[in-house]
Design goal:
Order of helices and strands of chain A: EHHEHHEHHEHEHHEH
Shape of chain B: elongated
Strand content of chain B: 5-15%
Strand order of the largest sheet of chain A: 3-2-1-4-5
Strand order of the largest sheet of chain B: 1-2-3
Number of strands of chain B: 4
CATH class of the largest domain in chain A: Alpha Beta
Radius of gyration of chain B: 21 Å
Largest sheet of chain B: 3 strands, antiparallel
Helix content of chain A: 55-70%
Oligomer: heterodimer
Strand content of chain A: 5-15%
Largest interface: A-B, 42 and 37 residues
Structural class of chain A: alpha/beta
Radius of gyration of chain A: 15 Å
CATH topology of the largest domain in chain A: Rossmann fold
Distance between the termini of chain A: 25 Å
Shape of chain A: globular
CATH superfamily of the largest domain in chain A: 5'-nuclease
Chain lengths: 167, 131
């Protein structure tokens, strides 16, 4: 099970790469915390995309409202974080799930809680290695499109682009 | 709060808002003022809500000054990892998508993690190990 945060999910939806998640992690289901879902649906283009994903892949993607225990932990994190990020971290921590998250501050909090974490760039690299992203050109195009809104330094871009296909 | 673009606008502005929003202070030069009168002693003033900017800078900012300061301050807090981007967006009454659009309009992009190749490699290993 993999928990998705708003920053990473928005980025993947915006570049039309959600199918990459499904194919890169074929045995995983994906959890979108309720507050994350609510937040990303505030943006028109993202709302349409996330609704389509849930409609087409409802067996793999699920919107989850936090339970009492998760809500209590999330509340402790809200001073620095949005409720959606707090919920994502709380669900991951209490369920032992992995977390895909790009936000600098939220990642710092998640790491302090020893949650296994990855980001959009990790997804891109793994997707190229495992072949959901078939060509180098496709990988490069996705990285370029991500960088329209998001900043990551050149060495990280190279780290992704140096990925090699697994046999 | 209504935009206060110039110190010289302050007296008019104060007349308008001081009744409904409580005392509003501003600086005229180095002297703290209230309703056009110098205030003293300075040590007794509550100035935490006051933002003093060079007038030359204020005249160059071609945006709503209150919103601009709020936006840039919250983005700064994100860059310092004190609040998340969504929190920053919501503090400005924006969606996350709207926040990114505002950044882009200033030629900025949202920094994301990991921040180094070493961090990325470590995440790569631990993410796969946990599977």
């Amino acid at each position: 099970m993999i928990i998705l945060d708003a920053t990473a999910l928005s980025a993947l939806l915006k570049v039309g790469a959600v199918h990459i998640l499904l194919e890169t992690f074929p045995s995983d289901s994906f959890i979108i915390p309720g507050e994350v879902w609510g937040e990303i649906r505030k943006t028109d283009v993202i709302r349409a995309a996330v609704d389509r994903v849930l409609q087409e892949h409802g067996d793999r993607f699920r919107v989850l409202e936090v339970d009492q225990q998760q809500a209590a932990l999330a509340s402790q994190l809200e001073e620095r974080l949005h409720r959606g990020e707090s919920e994502a971290i709380a669900i991951a921590k209490l369920s032992g799930a992995r977390l895909i998250m790009d936000d600098l501050t939220a990642r710092t909090v998640a790491k302090q809680l020893s949650i296994p974490i990855g980001g959009t760039l990790l997804v891109m690299r793994l997707a190229y290695e495992k072949c959901p992203i078939e060509t180098y050109e496709e990988l490069k195009d996705l990285i370029n499109r991500l960088s329209e809104d998001l900043y990551f330094n050149r060495s990280l871009e190279e780290w992704v682009l140096q990925a090699e296909k697994l046999s | 709060m209504e935009n206060l673009r110039h110190v010289t606008d302050a007296p008019k502005y104060l007349e308008k808002v001081s009744q409904s929003e409580g005392p509003v202070f501003y600086f005229y030069g180095e002297i703290p003022m209230w309703r056009g009168e110098p205030l003293a002693p300075v040590g007794k003033l509550r100035l935490q809500n006051l933002v003093a900017l060079p007038e030359d800078l204020v005249t160059l900012i071609d945006r709503d000054l209150d919103k601009e300061i709020s936006f840039l301050a919250s983005f700064g807090l994100y860059a310092e990892k004190k609040i998340s981007a969504l929190k920053a967006a919501n503090l400005n009454g924006m969606s996350y998508g709207g926040f990114l659009t505002e950044l882009r309009s200033r030629g900025l992009r949202l920094p994301i993690g990991p921040e180094s190749v070493q961090e990325a490699e470590q995440e790569y290993r631990s993410f796969l190990e946990e599977k």
